Amino acid sequence: MFSGNIDKSLLLYAITDRIWLKGKKLSEAVREAILGGATFIQLREKNSGYNEFLKIAQEVKEVTDKYKIPFVINDNVDIAVAVGADGAHIGQSDEELKSAREKLGPDKIIGVSAGTIKEAVEADKGGADYIGVGSVFTTSTKQDAKSVSIETLKEICKTVNIPVVAIGGISADNVLRLAGTGIDGISVISAIFAREDIKDAASELLKLAKQL
Predict the structure, then answer these.
(1) pLDDT value of residue 141
(2) Which domain holds residue 130?
(3) Annotated catalytic residue, options 27, 142, 154, 203
């Protein structure tokens, strides 16, 4: 169970996607990402039924608990509660923040996706612990994601009082374009989990994230 400072834990926020793993077990891929430098793990399972999702969450949580890395569940607050995760991340079309907070309790982490200043301010006022802002670059993972300009990202960072993580199409090749925006970290999927050497990919991204 994570018990540290969330602000410092968002630097390299890794979101899972089993599509890239070529048969490798997700919990092992997560372990490699953490050993490489991932500071936060979000479990994203868009196509799993409840029982399969719960089993995967339990396996991943064993790894994150071992390394004391914060672990949240994407979109599914009920799974987050059932597995005893550190919290959940919800999108604009998912469960409402108030309802998620009631289910999870006051001490759990809740992140909210935002694509506009208005959405970010609402999440801040509503009691979110951090905001995921994107998509900052074109992404293959979420085809319907609307893009957020660097200017809007900067404005959100200036306006809200909680940490901001940039997400969407971020890779080692473009991450330094986010320097000076005021973000607390970067959120990546394929830039870690689609790479042949997950540990090495995470290590490279962590070095770059520290330059932002």
Answers:
(1) 63
(2) 6-209
(3) 142
- How far apart, in Å, do the first and last CA atoms of the chain sit? 28
Does 1 fall in a domain? no
CATH of the domain at 10: 3.20.20.70
Would you call 44 a catalytic residue per the annotation?
yes
Task: Give the global pTM.
Answer: 0.96
Tens-digit pLDDT profile for residues 65-88: 999 999 999 999 999 999 999 999
Out of 18, 101, 108, 113, which one is annotated catalytic? 113
